[in-house]
Amino acid sequence: MFHDFFHCQPPSLRLLLPRSGREYAGAGKRIAAVRRTVSMMSSRGTSAMLSRAARMRQKLQSALEASALDIEDVSYQHAGHAAVKDNANETHFNIRVISPKFEGQSLVKRHRMVYDLLTDELNSGLHAISIVAKTPKESGS
User: Which fold has domain 50-139?
Assistant: First the structure.
């Protein structure tokens, strides 16, 4: 049974499939690992095509259900600073977000929520963000 199924698969998948019943137990882990890798590669490919501001907007809007979200790239104001290498773009942003998810949260907790959502960006070149985080009630919306 395994042998027939094995030879019907494309060569790339054959490396992952068991050749015998004894190998079957480890095949699931190998297939799951490849699926995770492919998933990560496809999401990175999509992310790489979007600007940093667009990726940030996507993450903040979906997680915080923001009623207003302004993201301003102010990197040009920091050109030449020691932390900005090779005239890098999209390193400094002002963010203004209004979200019902901030209701009952301290200012520190609101900022932490934003920072947590942008961890990937902060680890890949985003140097600084200025955050204004309000509830709809506080903003008068």
Answer: GMP Synthetase; Chain A, domain 3 (3.30.300)
